[in-house]
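Sanity check

After download, print the first record. It should look like this:
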Amino acid sequence: METKALLVTVEGRVQGVGFRAWTRHEADRLGLTGWVRNEKDGSVRALLEGAPDGVERMLERLWIGPPGASVAHVSPEPSTPENAEGFRIAR
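Expected structure tokens:
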């Protein structure tokens, strides 16, 4: 199976609105692995790994986010797969 990996930075009102838990839930639904964490600059960063179509669908969903979020920008960059098991909230 082909695996795609993206390192994504999400900017806007994305902390304090349940963005990490929402991201984990959506990634699980799409069968993705990786992680999501808050950054000190107020953004959220995530590693998305999995089938290319699942990664692309997750990228689209990140533009929407959970209720209460206001996404201003989503910046994806290619990454090397970490072959993670499951999707976790990182510290």
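If your output differs, re-run the checksum step. Summary of this record's structure: The chain has a mean pLDDT of 96.
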